[in-house]
Amino acid sequence: MSYSVLIKGGNVLRGRKFERLDIGIKKDKIENLGDFSKENADLVVDATGKYISPGFIDLTNHSDTHWTLFSQPKQESLLAQGITTILGGNCGASLAPLVKASDIEGIHKWADSTQINTNWKSVGEFFEELSRHPIGVNFAMLVGHGTLRRGVLGDEARNVTSKEIEELKFILKNSLDEGAFGLSTSLAAAHAKFATNSELKELFKLVGKYDGITKHHLKDEGRNILPAIAEIVGLGRDTGASIQISHFKILGKSSWGFLSEAINLIESARQEGTKITLDFFPYTKTGSLLYMLLPSWIIEGGRARILGALKDPKMRREALDYLKSLTLHYDKIVVASTFKDATSVGKTIKELASSSGLDPEEIIAELLEINELQVSIFNEVVSENHLHNLIAKEYALISSDGVGYDLKAKMPFDLPHPRSFGAFPRALQIFAKESDDTTFEEILHKFTEVPATLLGLRDRGKIEKGFFADLAVLDLDKIKNIPNYTALNKEVEGVEWVFVNGKAAVKNGVMSGELCGRIIKRV
């Protein structure tokens, strides 16, 4: 038999164990598994002593809403860590459906929406446009709840009427029919704060009828994390919808003690039959938006209210007093990206305050004003112990919560979080290589088959005859990612070959430049 690619001599992940097998690839699919030592092919990879996994599936990814899916389509920072499929439309925001072109402004927090021209409205039209732009990874998407609401309500942040709920359902149904995998929420966002239980239940029930997934940025990840989890669990229980908590974490030392109760809530719900899982990234520093540190009474009013409050002397003083009351560790908060003032990128709030003579709280206000709120930060607020506790849970998966970048692209106003370059190798390193939290087999199973099953992908996530040839060839002895938060972090070791739809996107650790990704639609 003739093959386009043969991968010989490797230890192939089959379920939760490795088997010594050769893999024969023909065009975009796995043609056969077995002993092909006497066979040849256009490309033969010697994987002796290496481990072969299905390509990793990144369930919480933001390449779409950060626009790099279009502006940096190779998505090399993801491929370099073994990721072959990403799920976009997370945290309540998606690039479709758009009732009107200006709805794209909902992504202004992460991308300059004024520079984006859209020629689509529906999810189907978005897929048509994206299909004209070669991409490096496979892309699937959710519909953002905030995007839906913006389409129906415009900039109004309020409760919806029963008639408007029907409009939301109509748009969501069309999106699911056109290939979206479900719905994402961020119930702390200005628009979504006004979503009632009745609105959410109607949308969740619809997703459930399609066997889709609902995915959630919790309303609170700190002091009020328990009611935030309980709210989502209740919606899942009442509607039967599949629930996935995105980038699960508990923020701040004062809240870390809630972990056991949070786990009990999730596990009790699972025992009662609620379909609930979570994902998390393997780092103790978060990447978040600076304005989210402000008091809720400012944030709830949306962008215009926040900027207005910072200009009003009385409200500004109240906001700064609130920040002071939080006793934040300004020496651990690093400015990661800015819209206009690039001179502050890579510096801590403490460093900026010391060099300017201003209080740290004033620095925060100044940064937000100058950059029209578009400032992201790295903040050390996650417990290392929590990460090790979570990976042992069968329902806890790994995601990057990151963005795909081209490795040679210039990013003058952006210092990406290391998770965008190494989340999956780092998880292998700290949970299986450097500790006995889990085994390589178990964690790779969580990277691949489990998320594929969760999404309902029938021909990806496993190394089986007839499945698409999305594969990662790994040297597990070398696997590592050491995070660096003050420089572009491109160093990942141990990922040697990555195949996307049968073509080598990474060859011996070097990017091939191939753009082999495809749009994946829910069927």
Automatic annotation (TrEMBL):
Q: Origin, by domain of life?
A: Bacteria
One Pfam family, short name: Amidohydro_3
What name goes with this protein?
Answer: Amidohydrolase 3 domain-containing protein
- Residue ranges of every copy of the Amidohydrolase domain listed in the record: 44-197, 416-483
Question: Per UniProt, what is one GO molecular function of this protein?
Answer: hydrolase activity, acting on carbon-nitrogen (but not peptide) bonds, in linear amides
Q: Which SUPFAM superfamilies match?
A: Composite domain of metallo-dependent hydrolases, Metallo-dependent hydrolases
Gene3D superfamilies (UniProt xref): D-aminoacylase. Domain 3 (3.30.1490.130), Metal-dependent hydrolases (3.20.20.140), Urease, subunit C, domain 1 (2.30.40.10)
